[in-house]
Amino acid sequence: MTGALGAALPLVPFLCSLLGFLLRPTSRFAGGFYGITGALAALIIAIVLALRVDGLVQTSHEVANFGSLEVTFGVRLNSAAAIVAIAVGVVALAVQVYSTSYLRDDDRYAPYAAQVSLFTAAMLLVVVAGDLVMLLVGWEVMGICSYLLIGHDRRLPEAPGAAVKAFLVTRVGDIGFLLGIVILGVRAGSFRISDVLAPGVLDPTTVTVVCLLLLAGVAGKSAQFPLHTWLPDAMAGPTPISALIHAATMVAAGVYVVTRLFPLFLSSSVALDVLAVMAAVTMLLGALAATAQDDIKRVLAWSTVSQLAYMMGALAVGAEAAALFHLLTHAAFKALLFLSAGAVIHSVGTNLMSRMGGLRKGMPVTFWCTTVGLGALVGLPPLAGFWSKDEILHVAVEGSGWRAIVVYVAGIVTVFVTAFYASRMWLRTFFGEARTADAAHPHDPPRLMAWPVVLLAVPSALLGFTALIPGFAQALGAPAGESFVVGPEVMVPVVWVALGVAAAWWAWRHRPADDPARVLGPLQPVFANAFYLDAVQDALVVRPVTALARTVRRLDESLVDGAVEATGRGTLSLGAVVASVHRAGLPRAVSAVLGGAAILGLAAVAIVGVWP
Amino acid sequence: MMHPVIPYVIAALLFGLGAYGVLTRRNAVLLLMAVELMLNAVNLVLVTADTTVRAALPYTGGVFALFIIVLAAAEVGVGLAVVLQLYRLRRSVQVDELPLADAGPYAGADDDDPLPVGASR
Amino acid sequence: MTTADVLMLALGAVAVGSAAAVVATRHVVRAGLWLVVALGAIAGLYLVLTAELVAWVQVLIYVGAVVVLLLFAVMLTRAPIGASADLDRSRWPGLLIGGGSGLGLAALLVDAYHWSTVEPTSVGTAEVIGTQVFRAWVLPFEVLSVLLLAALVGAIVVSRPDVGVRR
Q: Which residues of A14-34 are buried (b: 16+ CB within 10 A; e: fewer)?
């Protein structure tokens, strides 16, 4: 029964998405209905599963047998999977409800809602998959949905480019991911996760190679350095999509996959080293880039990059439960922040913070919800982010080895920078004087947009207290006996938070109309362009690949096509030559006939011999 | 009593002269005359063979020669009709000045239109 | 050398000589007339070879009809009266092939027959040849008459004035 429920978890939204694709694009009501129904059903099933699952539940049905290799469909459910599924369901439902109002002017709403349902199904497939091939299927379908949804608004000139960029950059990572899964399945003899994780099946070199390859895919999907460049540009998609895919769920899928295969990663110190370095670099990169962005969604995008690095850092020091906990709280508060940002954008009509200001009075609900979200983001006690982030730092400080030190130091510095950019965003958007006419008359969003925001504010504020529930940490995969309590060392990050907020407030105080990031001085454009990494990527990867593609195309057209066409043309010209020879005038033809006859006669006489 | 080699050799020489005439003459009518020479050479061989070859059916050579004469007459009739029609069209009967009507079915073809001229799509 | 041999040599010389004139002369009309001489000499050769019917049919049809037709064609195609210099193409292919085939055949036949003799016993009169035609060779005879009919019809069709006119 639990297994069947687990299989139903991705199937129900999938069916709703299929029904949604069959609708006419303009049918808003039916599209929204299917979308909300799918998300609601998924959420209910996830809650039921969370209540029923105790320990590990696995099912598998064989689908293909290639002799030494089996491909199975099956689910692998534990409490962590069920809880993550609940998070996915909640955010998906909030986004579906929010979208009906945010996209009310959209003329292609039905496919949009269907794609969101399809995405939800794919994410849930990744969550429950018991077989690596199924996980890969869900992984790839998420990628395609992300592409489709980023490019949804065809009137935006930057949307198609952003969609392609997202798809291609994650694709680069997905190649490694695919190779990793293939090697894993072939070496282990089966693609079932339980078989792959069985001890003694794989030798250490294979494990390290596989983990590094999988990390490539994880880095791509979770926007870690160096495959992070797609996430800020993906903000060209509609804001609810940014909330769902690029904050709460798809980008978290990378973290989730690592936790699923965590025993493999734990046994490979090289992979954990790489993970730690990647996490530290990305943490700082994301936070510093967020300090100088003008677009409110880009601030949140870089913030997501940085927070995901926190989860990666937790994984690098071996604390999968802390990583999952931060994943859950991040899902709540980041989705909240994106949806509120959507409300702000909807009211003011622009993404740019330089055109906002003083919105606090006109949109109080949004203001308070954003405050809760930002508080959770920086780790303000007692909001959710405080508990999860400090748990990560706690594990890092308790850990041994250089990995823990690197993660801890990077984490602390990032706490400071996070506080700075979050306060900067808060102050510039909601305080001071309105800087443009549009910002002068803000209003709170309509009900269908406001209710999901308010509802998400609840877990952003209170989810942290679940750390106090006994057994919660075990449900997320911590070894027995540990729990999410925090000790006195929690004061260190809180101090840094206070310092960061104070720094931003001090920079803002005297000149409210100016950007507090101006204190960065000459570093401001560097941070705003994210250390020009996009240009580096363009020069190192995009240009050579494009040049290679052009060369290959020219070779194909001139050599391959040319060979084929030359065959045709050559045959035709040969035929024309033969035809012209045939087109002999009478004298030449007669000469040929008589000459041929004479020669044949001579040959006959010579061969046969002269008769007596 | 006679030596059959004499008419045979005469026939061979006539054949060679006729072949020379066919290959050399430019006027179509003169060419037909040379063809007649060749046919007559063959007739001579056949008639001579009547005397040298003991065939199951007597006078076969002569009968064949008659048939060839009839065929030659028919051929000259049709051939001259063609020559006259040619003269009507081109005002000349020089056989090496006959331009071929067109350059062939694939002459107008190129990459965009590779089908032969007149082919239906 | 019997009488028959001498006659054959003489007639043969006439035939070959006038044939050479047919293919070499520069007057178109004279070529036709030389053709008459050549065909007549060949008819004489037939007579010496005791093939009477063939000889007279040769004179009737070849000399009487075919050559007349050829001369008509010469006139109707406005062949140049008098010598014209451009009647011949390049001579070498003709010399090579014609000479080669003629001399080659002659050598072949000489090699085959040497100086053997034959005694022509029966004369190919109309009666005997007619018997052969209407007994053993009646089918080809009938087919030949159909062929003649087809040739006549074909000649009429080909010489229609609207054949080949392209609009």
A: bbbbebbbebeeeebebbbbb
Q: Do A595 and C112 touch (CB under 8 A)?
A: no
* Alpha carbons A322 and A387: distance in angstroms, whole number: 10
Which contiguous run of DSSP H or E holds residue A76?
strand A76-77
Residues A271-323 have pLDDT tens digits of 999 999 999 999 999 999 998 888 999 999 999 999 999 999 999 998 888 89
For chain B, the maximum distance between any two Cα atoms, rounded to a whole number of angstroms, is 77
**pLDDT score recorded for residue B116:** 59
Q: In this model, does residue A54 exceed pLDDT 80? A: no
DSSP, collapsed to helix, strand or coil, labels residue A77 as: strand
> What does the block give as tokens for B22?
């066919």
Distance CA A490, CA A306 (A): 20
Nearest CA in chain A to B26: A587
CA distance linking residue A332 with residue A456, whole number of Å: 6
Return the number of CB contacts < 8 Å for B and C. Answer: 284
Chosen from C7, C14, C45, C54 to mutate, greatest number of chain B CBs within 10 A: C54
Which residue do the tokens 């075990």 mark?
Answer: A474
In the structure, how many helices (H) and strands (E) does chain C have?
8, 0
Alpha carbon distances (Å) from A521 to A291, A427, A524, A526: 12, 19, 6, 10
Torsion sign (Cα): A342, A344, A347, A353: negative
Residues 525-584 of A with CB under 8 A from B: 565, 568-569, 572, 575-576, 579-580, 583
CB contacts, 8 Å: C108 with chain A: 605, 610
Dist CA C46 CA C58 (whole Å): 9
Query: Are B72 and C57 within 8 A, CB to CB?
Result: no
* Global pTM value: 0.69
A521 DSSP assignment: T
pLDDT of residue A612: 43
Q: Which CATH architecture has domain B5-96?
A: Orthogonal Bundle (1.10)
- Kindly give, in sequence order, each residue whose CB lies less than 8 Å from that of residue C108, ignoring residues fewer than 6 positions away: A605, A610, B12
C-beta of residue A106 within 8 angstroms of C-beta of residue A112: yes
pLDDT in tens, A337-391: 999 999 999 888 888 888 888 888 888 888 999 999 999 999 888 888 888 888 8
* Cβ-based neighbour number of residue C86 at 10 Å: 10
Q: How is residue A402 written in tokens?
A: 């250089």
The sign of the CA dihedral A438, A443, A447, A453 is: positive
Chains in touch with A (≥3 Cβ pairs < 8 A): B, C
**Coil, strand, or helix at residue A69?**
coil
CB contact under 8 A, B23 and A586: no
Cβ of B117: how many Cβ atoms within 10 Å? 13
SS3 A206: helix
Q: B104 pLDDT exceeds 60?
A: no
What digits encode the pLDDT tens for the residues B81-102?
999 988 988 888 888 777 665 5
A102: tokens are: 């945010």
The answer to whether the peptide bond before residue A226 is cis (omega within 30 degrees of 0) is yes
- Sequential DSSP letters for A268-317: -HHHHHHHHHHHHHHHHHHHHHHTT--BHHHHHHHHHHHHHHHHHHHHHT
Could C16 and B10 be called an inter-chain contact, meaning their C-beta atoms sit closer than 8 Å? yes
Residues found in chain B? 121
What is residue A592's three-state secondary structure? Answer: helix
Shortest Cα–Cα distance, B6 to chain C (Å): 7
A549: Cα separation from own chain's centroid: 26
